């Protein structure tokens, strides 16, 4: 799959490669989408590489800036049950080429960590293992709100059969809004499905200002992964499916990164 990235006035198509080897049977790619199938391939991680390379190569890393950008994509979580996490994030590599994430003391921006029952967007400074989160489920509770005020009960906003029905695909939009000096002021999140829209804003000014210095410039590389852990209560509250969800997979498609006006 290729990710469309706007740089200046032009768009560049960046491919992804599989960190654990491109023959991983759990990775299914098309021109517009990528399927991460945990049942076939176990834990899977894919990373952005430079556009002149082919998806079979393993470098060099591709880097982008997040400040002043909007990221849009569609996600299908219908087969990502409790205790699994379909993650779409960026990290700042150690020494510019060694993969490290927030678990290893590196700056990480979680655009999406999600399954059928939880959705988080989290900022991690390089010293902050827990990060600053907004979203729905687990450790952040139910912070999303219904933009059109159709539903006021937050427990009915996100999940199977709810306002954003995770039995079907939905669209995600994240904006990294900056001031006139290019300092990150607001992270704006919106989930949309048909005419239903829920959203939230992260505006911890002091935290985001400090984060700006760590993600400024082309220092972020995109990562997609699907993994599981018995400690996933922080994402979904630690519940259990009432029916067996098999196979376990998630689909991310139509990724587009544009410059905010």
Helicity, as a percent range: under 10%
Predict the CATH topology: 1,4-Beta-D-Glucan Cellobiohydrolase I, Chain A
- Tell me about the largest β-sheet: 16 strands, mixed
| Beta strand count | 18
**Radius of gyration computed on alpha carbons:** 17 Å
| CATH hierarchy: architecture | Distorted Sandwich
Overall pLDDT score? 86
State the distance separating the first and last CA atoms: 27 Å
Shape: globular
**CATH superfamily annotation:** Glycoside hydrolase, family 7, domain
In the CATH hierarchy, what is the class?
Mainly Beta
The tally of helices reads 3
* SSE string: EEEEHEEEEEEEEEEEEHEHE
Number of domains: 1
Could you name the ranges where pLDDT drops below 50 across 5 or more consecutive residues?
none
Task: Give the percentage of residues in beta strands.
Answer: over 45%
Q: Which assembly state applies to the chains in this document?
A: single chain
The structural class is: mainly beta
Could you describe the 3D structure shown?
- With 261 residues, the protein is mainly β.
- It has a single domain, classed as Distorted Sandwich (1,4-Beta-D-Glucan Cellobiohydrolase I, Chain A).
- 7% of the residues lie in helices and 45% in strands.
- It has helices spanning 38-41, 205-215, 233-236; strands spanning 2-7, 10-18, 27-29, 33-37, 44-48, 69-79, 84-91, 108-115, 118-124, 132-136, 145-146, 158-159, 164-165, 170-178, 184-193, 196-202, 221-228, 249-259.
- The strands form two sheets. The protein has a 16-stranded mixed β-sheet that branches.
- Strand 14 (170-178) and strand 15 (184-193) form a beta hairpin.
- It starts with a strand and ends with a strand.
């Amino acid at each position: 799959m290729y990710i469309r990235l706007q740089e200046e006035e032009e768009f560049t198509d960046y491919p992804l490669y599989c960190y654990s080897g491109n023959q991983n049977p759990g990775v299914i790619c098309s021109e517009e989408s990528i399927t991460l199938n945990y049942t076939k391939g176990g834990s899977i991680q894919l990373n952005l590489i430079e556009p002149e390379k082919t998806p079979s190569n393993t470098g060099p890393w591709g880097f982008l800036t997040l400040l002043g950008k909007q990221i849009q994509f569609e996600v299908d979580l219908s087969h990502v049950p409790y205790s699994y996490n379909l993650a779409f994030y960026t990290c700042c590599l150690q020494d510019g080429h060694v993969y490290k994430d927030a678990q290893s003391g590196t700056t990480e921006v979680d655009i999406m960590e999600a399954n059928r029952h939880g959705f988080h967007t989290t900022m991690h400074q390089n010293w902050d293992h827990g990060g600053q989160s907004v979203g729905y489920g687990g450790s952040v509770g139910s912070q999303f709100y219904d933009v059109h005020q159709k539903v006021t009960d937050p427990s009915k906003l996100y999940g199977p059969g709810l306002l954003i029905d995770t039995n079907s695909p939905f669209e995600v939009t994240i904006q990294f809004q900056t001031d006139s000096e290019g300092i990150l002021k607001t992270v704006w999140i919106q989930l949309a499905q048909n005419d239903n829209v829920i959203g939230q804003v992260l505006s911890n000014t002091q935290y985001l200002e400090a984060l700006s210095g760590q993600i400024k410039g082309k220092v972020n590389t995109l990562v997609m992964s699907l993994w599981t852990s018995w400690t996933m209560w922080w994402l979904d509250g630690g519940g259990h499916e009432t029916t067996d969800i098999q196979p376990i997979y998630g689909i991310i498609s139509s990724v587009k990164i544009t410059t905010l006006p």
